[in-house]
User: What shape does this take?
Amino acid sequence: MSILPLHLSIAVELAAAGVPTLPLRAGKVPFGNCRTCSKNACGGRPNMKNPGSCQCLAPCHAWAAATTDTRALTSSAWAAAWRRAVAVAYHPGGAGLTVVDLDNAAAVAWARETLPATRTVQTTRGEHWIYRGTMPSANAVRPDVDIKSLMSYARWLGPGTGTMTDLPGAVRALVVRKPSAARPVVTVPALAGGGECRHRTPSYLERGIAMAEQRITETPSAVHATVYRTFLAVLAAHGRCGCLTDAHITRLFTAAQAKGESSRHCTDAWTNARARLGL
Assistant: This one.
């Protein structure tokens, strides 16, 4: 029996436990796409559940390459990557987990004062706090704190210590953007009937977008229908007065794709909702 390289051996062990893994190259980043997949010309692998049109067998598309298929991990298509690998990464969201990445001692101190205790993994400069449950990933949610869950990857640094606990609301709240105190008013065009737009206070719009993201993220089934109905509700409330920006729409699409929707389906659902409302 041949002996697997160290990183591949770790990846196979994790995959057998249901943790999607992938190799990292120098710089601790995923391997670049092959020529066929360059610039997502293949259609891409936008998420774990809906692989789009890409049929590539190589470890392309960054975090979306993570897999629990040990045959793929040990295949010839992945062999060159494992020979060059410097570390193993995993997709926390694919394993039903969220990693709070604390990048230094100050961030760790904040977590110990603010967040419920959970399993902890030591990193080069700080700690990973791992919770059961998934959520949208986000960088710089506060100084030196990142959230790695859906559509993201984290470096595997060992199983850690302590008892893993459920993802708390305090972590979910970190990705809900609060209105800037420096910009208390949203400038929007007047309504067709000449009335005052109730969305001129940013909190109304922000609350609506955050609730829409939560509705999509927490739906246990019927994701297609939930995404469409949520888009329809957002457009019914905010689609006629100029409040919605590209940033708001991106947040909704990101939440939908994190639940397994393709970019194309998101676009179709948005277009259909607009058409139904006559926008």
Summary: The mean pLDDT is 83. The chain is about 35% helix and 15% strand.
